[in-house]
Structure formats: C-alpha cells, structure tokens
Amino acid sequence: MKHRYIISALAVALMSSACSDFLDTSLDRNQTGETIVTDRSSIWYFGYAFYSPIGYGYTTIDNNIFATASDEAQQTSASSQVIYFNKGMLNESVNPLFYLYQNCYEGIRAANFFLEYVADGKGEELLAQNRNLITDATNYKKDLESLAWFKAEAHIARAYYYSELIKMYGGVPIVESSQDDGQMIPRSTYEEVVEYIVKEIDDHKDALAVNWNDYTDREGRFTLGAALAIKARVLLYAASPLHNESNDVKKWERAAAAVNELVSNTSLSYSLDSDYGAYFSGGNPLSSSETIYAVRSWSSNTMEALNYPIATQGGGSGATPTHNLVSAYEYIGTPDPSDPYANRDPRLAASVVTNGSTWNGRIIDQSAGGSDDMAKANASRTGYYLKKFLTDNLNLTQGQTVQHNWVAYRWGEVLLNYAEAMNEAYGPDAVPAGFSMSARQALQMVRDRASSLLPQVTATDVESFRKAVKHERRIELAFEDHRYWDLIRWKDAMEVLNTPVLGVKVSKSGDTYEYEVTEVAARTFHERNHYLPFLRSEIENSNNTLEQNPQY
Fold first, then answer.
1. 156: left (phi over 0), alpha (psi -120 to 50) or beta
2. Domains and CATH numbers, the chain
3. Which pLDDT tens digit goes with each residue over 170-196?
4. Termini Cα distance of the chain
5. Strands 501-509, 406-410: parallel, antiparallel or unpaired by DSSP?
6. Residue 42 is inside which H or E element, if any?
C-alpha cells in the first residue's frame, strides 16, 4: 500500500464563537508546503485537521445509517449501495465503505503531520513567537496547555482510526510518518494493530483533558473518557470469537479490566440519561452525562427527509425497521391481542414508528386506503418507520432544520461492554477485587433505565447470560451502528444475515388493525464477508504489497 501524504489537505479552521456548537474541521486543499503560514495559529489549524475524517454515522451508506446492512432495517429504495451488503456481493471492485478506509488514513496522516509539525519543541517556539511573554503570560500559559492536549489527542486520533480500520478489514498497514517516500508498507496483523492502539492510548491518556467544562469552544475533541472508551471497545472486539477462536479467557479478562478502568475512574462523571427516547434528539446528546464522545454537525433536515414516511410531505421512507428487530422487544405487561405494540419495552416506542402510533402530527395508518397505505410507491415495505434520532413533525416544506449529533461512544454501551466482558471472564455475578460491579449489575442498570417493569434476567451460567447480553445490545443500541459489527465479531452473521428480513402487512377490519408477518427480502452473507475487501486499485497502487483478505 502506498500512502501519498500531501500537506495541502491539512489546514483547517475552528468555527467562530458564534457557531461554536461543533468543530469545523473541513480540510483546506489549496494549501501547499510553500504556502503554509508558519505561526502559532497554524498549530491550531493542523490540530483540528485530524478530526475532520471522523465517521458521521448518519451518512455511512446511501447517505443514511448503516442499520440497513444488518437485520435491523431495510432500505426502501431499490437503487441503493447497501444492496451489495444485503446480497453478499462485495468484491475487490465493489465496496461502498471503502471511502471510510481512505478517510481513516487521511485522519492518521493528519495526526502524523501535526505531531511532526510541533515535535522537538517547535510547537512551543511558535507559541512564543512575536508575543510578550510577560504581559501575555496568561494566554501563553493557556496556549501551552492546549498544545499539550492537542499532542495527546493526535495519538488518540490515530488509535481511533486504527480501531475503525481493524473492525472492517482486520490487520492493516501501520503508518507513523507523514512523509511519502514511496515505501510500500505491508499489513500488520490484527493483534499487532490492537497492541499499537492500546499503547497509543496508555502512553498518552494521562495527558488528556478530563472534560471541556471550562473550555466550551473545545467541545468535540477527545477526552480521557473517549480514549478509555476506544480502548475498551477494541479489547472487547479482540476477545470476541472472530479474533479469539480458542476463547482464551485472558483476552476477556483484559477486556474487562479495560472497561473497568473507565467505569471505576472517579474523575469521570458519566451516567445514564433519564430519558432514553429524548436523549438522541437534537442537541440533547451534547448536554447529557451519558455522552462520552459525539460527532457534531450543522443543523439539517436530511435524516428526516430521508426517513420520514413517504406520506409526510418531503419524506422518503429510507431505513425502515424490520419485524426481526421489533419482535425482539420484550413485553412489560400482558400482551394486548388487539395491539401487538402495547405493553412493550418502552425503547420500542422511542425507536420505531409502529402502525397506529402518532407521528408527524397524525396517526400512522398503513392499511389499504389509509394515510400511509403500504401500496403507495416508496412506502415502507416492513410496516415500520424509523423514529430514533429524528425530530417529530419537522416542517420539511419550509426547510426547518435541527441538530443531529452522532453519538460515537456513550455510557449505555460502556455498561453493556462491561457486562459482556465480565460475564465471559468471571461469570454473571462475580466481582473480583478492584472491579466496580458484576456483569449482572451493569446489565440491570441499562434495563432499569428503560423500565423497572422489564422481566428480571435470571440466567446464572455464562452461556445463558451471554444470550441476555446479546439481546440487550440489540435493543439498547438499535440503529447506532453496532449490530452489524456485533454479529461479525460474535460469528453470528452466517446465521443471522442469511435469514430473510421480515415485515408486517397491515390490514383493517372495522376499527381493528390486523398484522400478517411477511418476508420482505432475502439476505446473503458469505464466510469471506467477515472482513471487507480492499479495492483492487489500492492493491495495484501498492505494487501488491497490500494483501487482499481471503476469498475475495
């Protein structure tokens, strides 16, 4: 693989204070090595540059969420990129996510460049340049502090990008220099990249800010909590069956210790948001104690326009939840024969628009002749619409917009990571010395936030409790870009992603709705699809140094 590092792609600017609700990390591609301004402002330009390529989960595929690649959702449009995942058609010529591979290396390149730019005291020299260090001592001290944070953040950025790369491709080339000398860099193994990520985080975590409470203009940058969350997720994946075929308990113990490092850190103050449904809407994640790291963006109505019901003016149906997912939500009371969605886990109503519920200012009626008749062109084929992340009743015809902040790491996931790793390492109820709680206690915290009426998890052995954890991840993390990768790392994808996607056909008899479960689409997943393919062009550019994943 040949990496071409061009300085021209690195310059960025921080948004003005009037618009400082997120970082503007757009890359300035007009700069060259000769035109880069060398002063202290350039430090911040290059510092923010390595944030630019961070994944924004609302636009992963088909400009929408990645849930349609799993059994969570079905893309309404027949002409979509996700079809290559749904039909197992990925190959060395077709990989709709390959842009993420390129983006990750862009971010790594930007982090490498920044670290080289400020190395050996050059950053401190620039900060002292053309300023009175006596009269401007306070600002100078703040700048030195910020520079130190940026240096640590650059290392965490590299860890983040490599964590995303190995999730998709397994082992990848490790690149630590921004200089393009034409060297062909072979792939490191998955395990080698894991160790590189862990070292980056362990070596630099103590130099990170704990939070940005006193520096609101720096919100959106990595903190200690974000770094520990990245490490915990990486080691959880590394301990999972795809990468731990012998089920080495030491890997699970290491994963459990990594999550516990975050959970037990008294300097951090994360907690579950009291309102699961409202948490994901608008600007709420930015002020919630549940958020560890969120990717911010301009206000827009793209998510609503893509995913509102087709009967809503401006709506496109988009990613429609499957009955496979909906049927997995537990009952919290006696089932209602006339309404299969009543008395269910409240996370269903918070995440999915079901027939007969109120959405966009009307009651959704998908029966023949109803406002959302399933026979209408581009209506949901599953009988459901997406609710999670969306703002209700946004006026699309008048261009009304709202914030959509992608939550990359949150406390709910951390607790589930803890429950899984602890169960596999020590069982459901053990609390070894130095650990904060048992796997069961962590799982119960997530379920209690959803509803105190949910049935108790009674599993007492590792295997049964594992099923409970998998179920909880499916429900709690629905549509958040976890399901596909969970199925992959658990090696459940060959079964689950070869199962047809189901929906319901809605009809009406008098005032009563009736539901018939139907097969919406077949799905295909091959053994080779546990990893994504590198594009043939990338392999050729590397003079075949980059080795393709098996069976592609």
1. alpha
2. 1-60+97-222 (1.25.40.890), 241-299+403-490 (1.25.40.390)
3. 999 999 988 754 458 999 999 999 999
4. 17
5. unpaired
6. helix 40-49
